[in-house]
């Protein structure tokens, strides 16, 4: 198997351009889409980007089928809210703790990943998500069960000396916060997958046996990937309750896991930017289709199937094809 | 019989009946997995399509157009649902599985079938609307009682039809050339190919058989379901659990696991509460995966390799 | 061949179209009350949305006929809030900025209604709710929330008291779907029933994905003598539940002694679906299509004329229909914008609609339960009104 490990160690200028562009996009997006509705969708989009990135680390880079990512999203959401409401924690501290809790749960799932492969792991992780959901529903003393938790406040305002207070009650600041975090996580993961760690994970993905012969401890690295990915999903979960104001177990139905999976696959699995594209497209597509009324979800289903059928590399592949054509044309133009 | 014994027997009967329904749903999944290592996420929606087909045949077409009696109409509807499932299988194979199989990928068909599932659910929603259809089996009206123990004619029918279907599947696998070839493909695709077996045809056939079983399962489970376009989705998660507990691709294991899950469900309702069914089933699943990852009945496939 | 029209003509056409558009909207602005409707239109909960839409469409036709209320026309935009808090928050923001509604009607599901209430409170747009029974909705101090549906408290209290006093029930087994509304109703029943001296033998909840209710019926059969079975579930599951209970000879419809009691949730037609199993079922009815009130008979007739002679409106149809009628009534009483709609609502006392008389209390909850009554299903599946 050929893996893409032959990367230049130095960050090429094109990546800096990409980062700057992404940063500019995050700053500009809520100013262009300047209404509460679109800004709200942007916040959802930023959360989905985090979720897709996290799932991609496990699925795309480490090759572990995970159908239960919604569980970690849920753990992040519930732990952060419960710590703030019932134990009076500061939100930011609760956020760290909740992400860590999701990470620990990820380690638990990793214990299964060490023993199981392929669809077995897929269904085990699905089971993990079902169990998490059921615990949220049934552990009423702590989670309020199906009655839900209401009136959840957004993250508390930040007061920096000499600057105006930043309040997250409006979705502008909230988007910049979550979008900024997504940007930072992307940066971190981007560097991670290019590092020897990334090579190790990819070696696991391609062939566990030969990876072992190279001295790679599969169990440890799977635990690492699951732990980190779940922490990120948990982090995304911390922002959900404050944004919606309401927390019910149904928000973390296992169907949500499939949506995340679809984002990764539709965007382009195993690349960094692919899942981001997938998350953006699959967040905005259903919203843009709202005017289609009752046909909305049928169109969504057809689109999902068609993308998978005709773009095996996801939307990213399409982008690459177009770029290749353009550069070829540009090249042809230059030689003429 | 004292109260406790009555209760235990009654819940066991309830469980076995439910288990048979689950087996019918899960068998198709396990067949597809066994032969081509694929998960069909739209399987549950095939069950729903089967249920709707059976409903309209049993209550409209067979009774009003063909003039059959209720019981005969329902029996006919089971076969029509089987056919509807087969047609769906043919389509999904031609449109999704076959084109993607050439690329040798396990994940994309999964996502594609999620898309198919969304499409089928919402297509049926557009056609039939969300208000539940009342699908009553004429056999459910007959309650058979032995003292305080009771079951319906429908449960007898479900058990008999399930056994017949499983028997037919076995006979096909054991005694026909195609069936033997199918098992050969499921064990080793390349060698089977070398032996002159056309794997594409066989895989297609498997999907058709599996989907036909889903359609038939729909006809059988329809009179239990709250029949809406989303009805199948209520059993699919359990069906996945059954397939795993039984050992992916293992037919005997699936049958055993299905009945076991049915019984577990009945006794969970009795002693723990129905809200905990999924919790109990999936904890069992995770325990199984740790203790016996190959399923209830050890897979022979690995011994052969 | 060039089939494109000359550019100038396109520009002119566009300009005319744009002018027409601006003209029409600015013209429409003065005499229109915009009503945003949030309903589950996709997913299993579209059960509510489909029926709600029917009621709204019918009501719109009627109130907009002729000059409309006080010369105003009611204009509606539907949004699919999918019974989910996230979708509801997103769609309510969407409808607020794209449609600028004067009032919002919806959601059915308590979770979603509770999620949008604070947003509408902040936007100062009234919410008229007709299907969520969670108590919190009108007990959280919102000034812009109005509800024409009895809360879980109101329903559960009636059921609990009548079970004990009128039916002489002393033991009960609670059956309820595991949702916000189901739990709320069951809790209230238990509180009232046990306070009166009754005993709850078991609380049996079920998710919306439970299909076969025989194990539950078997369990109840093994609990000894049960007098009443208060049941809080939607039509589909309740039908299956009633059939299973009859098979297990628990309820009267199956030759047992227990009486199943139900909430307003069950639609007209439930008995026909459940068949003989439903004999003896006693339930609360708010909208009763057999009622002889002119309001109701007119509604029935109009509904049949529009949707088919064989159709009988359900309470969900009726609630949505009533919601529009109430908006029209507020407009007739001089409301022209959100603030005045809220004001007229808060002063409404005894306004007649198909589901009864609406009198909003200080919290925005309808307090007039005069038309709410109990019916018992007879052997021929017809209703007998109880003189409770």
Measured distance between first and last alpha carbons of chain A: 39 Å
Enumerate how many helices of chain B there are, as a single number: 12
Q: Outline of chain A, from the CA principal axes?
A: globular
**Major sheet of chain A: size, sense and barrel closure?**
none
By DSSP (H or I, 4+ residues per run), the number of helices of chain A equals 14
Strand percentage of chain B lies at under 5%
CATH architecture type of chain B? Orthogonal Bundle
Written overview of the protein:
Chain A contains 14 helices and no strands. Chain A is mostly helical and 336 residues long. Chain A has one domain. In chain A, helix 2 crosses helix 11. Chain A is globular, with a radius of gyration of 20 Å. The N terminus of chain A is likely disordered. With 305 residues, chain B is mainly α. Chain B has one domain: ABC transporter involved in vitamin B12 uptake, BtuC, CATH 1.10.3470. Helices cover 75% and strands 3% of the residues of chain B. A two-stranded antiparallel ribbon of chain B has the order 1-2. In chain B, helix 1 packs antiparallel against helix 8 and helix 2 packs antiparallel against helix 3. Chain C has 388 residues and is an alpha/beta fold. Chain C has 2 domains: 185 residues, Rossmann fold (3-Layer(aba) Sandwich), CATH 3.40.50; 133 residues, Rossmann fold. Chain C has 13 helices and 14 strands. Chain C has a 7-stranded mixed sheet, covered by helices on one side. In chain C, strands 2-1-3-4-5 form a 5-stranded parallel sheet, with helices on both faces. Chain C is globular, with a radius of gyration of 23 Å. Classes of the chains: A mainly alpha (336), B mainly alpha (305), C alpha/beta (388). At the A-B interface, helix 5, helix 11 and helix 13 of A face helix 3, helix 4, helix 9 and helix 11 of B.
């Amino acid at each position: 198997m050929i893996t893409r490990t032959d990367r230049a160690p130095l960050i090429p200028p094109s990546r800096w351009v990409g980062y700057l562009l992404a940063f500019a996009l995050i700053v500009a997006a809520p100013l262009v889409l300047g209404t509460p509705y679109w800004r709200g969708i942007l916040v959802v989009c930023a959360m989905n980007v985090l979720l897709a990135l996290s799932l991609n680390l496990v699925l795309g880079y480490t090759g572990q089928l995970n159908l239960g990512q919604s569980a970690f999203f849920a753990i992040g959401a519930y732990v952060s809210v419960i710590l703030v409401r019932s134990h009076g924690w500061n939100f930011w501290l609760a956020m760290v703790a909740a992400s860590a809790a999701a990470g620990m749960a990820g380690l638990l799932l990793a214990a299964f990943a060490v023993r199981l492969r392929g669809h077995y792991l897929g269904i085990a992780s699905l089971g993990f998500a079902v169990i998490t959901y059921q615990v949220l529903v049934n552990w009423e003393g702590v989670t309020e069960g199906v009655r839900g938790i209401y009136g959840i406040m957004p993250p508390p305002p930040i007061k920096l000396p000499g600057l105006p207070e930043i309040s997250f009650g409006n979705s502008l600041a909230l988007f910049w916060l979550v979008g900024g975090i997504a940007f930072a996580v992307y940066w971190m993961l981007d560097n991670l997958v290019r590092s020897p760690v990334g090579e190790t994970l990819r070696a696991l993905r391609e062939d566990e046996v030969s990876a072992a012969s190279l001295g790679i401890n599969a169990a440890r690295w799977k635990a690492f990937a699951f732990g980190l990915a779940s922490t990120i999903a948990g982090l995304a979960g911390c922002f959900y309750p404050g944004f919606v104001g309401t927390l019910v177990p149904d928000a973390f139905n296992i169907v949500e896991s499939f949506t995340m999976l679809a984002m990764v696959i539709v965007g382009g699995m195993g690349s960094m930017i692919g899942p981001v594209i997938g998350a953006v497209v699959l967040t905005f597509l259903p919203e843009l289709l709202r005017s289609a009324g009752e046909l909305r979800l049928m169109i969504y289903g057809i689109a999902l199937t068609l993308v998978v059928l005709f773009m095996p590399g996801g939307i990213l592949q399409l982008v690459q094809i177009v770029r290749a054509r353009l550069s070829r044309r540009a090249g042809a133009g230059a030689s003429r | 019989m004292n109260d406790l014994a009555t209760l235990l027997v009654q819940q066991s009967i309830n469980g076995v009946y439910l288990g048979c329904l689950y087996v019918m749903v899960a068998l198709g999944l396990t067949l597809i997995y066994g032969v081509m290592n694929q998960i069909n996420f739209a399987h549950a929606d095939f069950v729903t399509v089967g249920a709707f087909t059976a409903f309209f045949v049993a209550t409209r077409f067979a009774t009003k157009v063909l003039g059959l009696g209720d019981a005969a109409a329902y029996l006919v509807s089971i076969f029509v649902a089987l056919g509807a499932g087969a047609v769906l299988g043919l389509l999904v194979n031609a449109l999704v599985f076959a084109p993607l199989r050439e690329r040798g990928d396990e994940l994309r068909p999964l996502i594609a079938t999620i898309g198919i599932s969304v499409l089928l659910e919402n297509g049926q929603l557009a056609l039939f609307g969300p208000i539940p259809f009342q699908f009553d089996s004429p056999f459910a009206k007959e309650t058979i009682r032995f003292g305080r123990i009771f079951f319906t004619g429908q449960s007898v029918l479900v058990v008999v039809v399930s056994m017949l279907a499983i028997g037919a599947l076995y006979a096909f696998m054991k005694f026909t050339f195609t069936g033997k070839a199918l098992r050969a493909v499921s064990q080793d695709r390349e060698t089977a190919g070398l032996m002159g077996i056309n794997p594409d045809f066989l895989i297609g056939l498997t999907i058709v058989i599996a989907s036909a079983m889903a359609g038939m399962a729909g006809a059988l489970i329809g009179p239990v379901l709250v029949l809406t376009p989303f009805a199948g989705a209520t059993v699919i998660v359990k069906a996945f659990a059954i397939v795993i507990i039984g050992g992916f691709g293992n037919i005997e294991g699936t049958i055993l696991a299905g009945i076991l899950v049915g019984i577990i469900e009945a006794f969970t309702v009795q002693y723990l509460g129905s809200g905990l069914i999924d919790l109990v089933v999936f904890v069992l699943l995770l325990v199984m995966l740790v203790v016996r990852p190959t399923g209830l009945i050890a897979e022979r496939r690995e011994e052969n390799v | 061949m060039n089939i494109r029209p000359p550019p100038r003509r396109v520009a002119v056409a566009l300009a005319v179209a744009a002018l027409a558009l601006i003209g029409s909207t600015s013209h429409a602005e003065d005499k229109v009350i915009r009503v945003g409707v949030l309903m589950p239109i996709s997913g299993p909960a579209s059960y509510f949305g489909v029926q709600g839409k029917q009621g709204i469409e019918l009501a719109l036709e009627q109130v907009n006929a002729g000059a409309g209320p006080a010369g105003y026309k009611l204009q509606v935009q539907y949004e699919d809030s999918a019974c989910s808090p996230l979708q509801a928050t997103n769609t309510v923001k969407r409808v607020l900025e794209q449609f600028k509604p004067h009032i919002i009607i919806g959601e059915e599901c308590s979770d979603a209604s509770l999620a949008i209430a604070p947003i509408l409170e902040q936007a100062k747009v009234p919410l008229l709710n007709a299907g969520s029974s969670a108590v919190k909705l009108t007990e959280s101090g919102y000034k812009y929330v109005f509800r024409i549906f009895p809360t879980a408290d109101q329903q559960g209290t009636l059921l609990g008291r009548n079970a004990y006093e009128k039916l002489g029930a002393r033991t009960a087994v609670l059956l309820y779907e595991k949702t916000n509304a189901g739990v709320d109703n069951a809790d209230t029943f238990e509180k009232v029933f046990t306070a009166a001296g009754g005993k709850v033998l078991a609380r049996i909840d079920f998710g919306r994905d439970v299909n076969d209710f025989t194990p539950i019926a078997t369990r109840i059969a093994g609990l000894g003598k049960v007098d009443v079975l208060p049941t809080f579930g939607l039509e589909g599951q309740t039908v299956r539940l009633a059939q299973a209970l009859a098979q297990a000879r628990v309820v009267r419809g199956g030759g047992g002694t227990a009486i199943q009691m139900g909430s307003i949730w069950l639609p007209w037609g439930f008995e026909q679906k459940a068949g003989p199993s439903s004999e003896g079922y006693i339930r609360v009815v708010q909208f009763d299509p057999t009622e002889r009130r002119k309001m109701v008979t007119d509604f029935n007739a109009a509904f049949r004329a529009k949707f088919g002679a064989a159709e009988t409106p359900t309470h969900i149809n009726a609630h949505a229909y009533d919601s529009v009628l109430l908006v029209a009534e507020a407009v007739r009483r001089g409301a022209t914008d959100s603030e005045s709609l809220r004001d007229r609502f808060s002063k409404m006392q005894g306004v007649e609609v198909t589901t009864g008389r609406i009198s909003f209390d200080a919290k925005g909850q309808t307090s007039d339960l005069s038309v709410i009554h109990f019916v018992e299903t007879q052997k021929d599946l017809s209703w007998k009104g109880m003189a409770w």
